[in-house]
Write a structure and sequence with these properties.
By secondary structure, the chain is an all-alpha fold. It has two domains: 82 residues, no CATH class; 187 residues, Hypothetical protein af1432 (Orthogonal Bundle). The protein has 17 helices and no strands. The protein is globular.
Length: 286
């Protein structure tokens, strides 16, 4: 099976999760500069499940506001349109894929812990470097590996081959799938993000986070996700010595040289933020 045949087969799968209609509508509304706070708030309020999750998120330790936020309009005013949009998309994505049956070798909880870790690390890098919106970096981190869930659920035989190769040869997931599959998880995730009609910058950040494409419409966002993923994969809290970050794209390494040089100093503090984010997003019954 070649890449195009595989991706066409992916497109024909009918029960792949879709974003809730409110998330799709909010995403579309924010592409219109005339959208008002009132219009956005009223749209979100049509989905009370999203309202509940969003208010719990903005009042959680993850955002750290001292004053309680009780309404969606207040959340929009305090956080801004893009932050609210990305929060809605983030909680929707995790909700959409939670509790779905996947191959036994795939640990869904560890998968989301990694995705959240990349999201939080990317957001911190964005805040420090100002290369892109921290909230865009966060939602791109949440999304970056979603293609793995699709493989584990809908292409179990192929996922099993990759997993066996990882165990037998000590390869990374990406190295194994590049040898064995017609399309890798990044391409699959990008295809899904495009189907969800997410912004082009987010789609490319997902599609090329392992193989940085310099022609990307938002190259800085792509590089932030790429670097955050490498840091999370190679930085182990409490370990001795500097992490091996030699796999980072040279241009990304140059742009974020100060952050990479001091990563062992600042990453432990970010790890605390990661724990807080995981506590919220992965809390049972949230």
């Amino acid at each position: 099976m070649d890449e195009q045949t595989f991706l066409n087969k992916l497109d024909r799968i009918r029960d792949i999760p879709t974003l809730p209609s409110v998330a799709v509508t909010v995403n579309r509304m924010l592409q219109d500069t005339d959208t008002s706070t009132r219009e956005l708030s009223m749209t979100i309020e049509k989905d009370q499940a999203i309202v509940s999750k969003l208010l719990r998120l903005v009042n959680s330790a993850f955002y750290g506001f001292q004053a309680k936020i009780n309404t969606i309009s207040h959340a929009v005013t305090v956080l801004g349109f893009n932050t609210v949009r990305n929060a809605v998309v983030s909680v929707s994505i995790i909700e959409a894929f939670s509790g779905r049956e996947v191959i036994e070798a795939f640990d869904m909880k560890n998968f989301w812990k990694h995705s959240i870790a990349v999201a939080v690390t990317g957001r911190n890098l964005a805040e420090d470097t100002r290369l892109a919106s921290p909230d865009e970096a966060f939602v791109a981190g949440i999304l970056h590996d979603v293609g793995k869930v699709v493989l584990a659920q809908y292409f179990k035989d192929l996922f099993g081959q990759v997993w066996e190769s990882i165990q037998d040869n000590g390869q990374s997931f990406y190295e194994a799938e590049k040898k064995l599959l017609p399309a890798d998880h990044a391409q699959i995730g990008g295809r899904l993000a495009k189907k969800w009609r997410l912004p082009p910058g987010l789609i490319e950040a997902v599609t090329y986070h392992h193989a940085v494409r310099k022609s990307a419409v938002n190259l800085d966002l792509l590089m932030l996700v790429h670097v955050a993923d490498c840091i999370v994969n190679h930085c182990k809290i409490g370990s001795d010595g500097e992490p091996d970050l030699s796999g980072i794209h040279p241009e990304a390494a140059a742009k974020m040289a100060p952050q990479l040089e001091g990563v062992s100093d600042w990453f432990p503090e970010v790890a605390t933020e990661i724990d807080a984010a995981c506590e919220f997003f992965l809390e049972k019954g949230r």
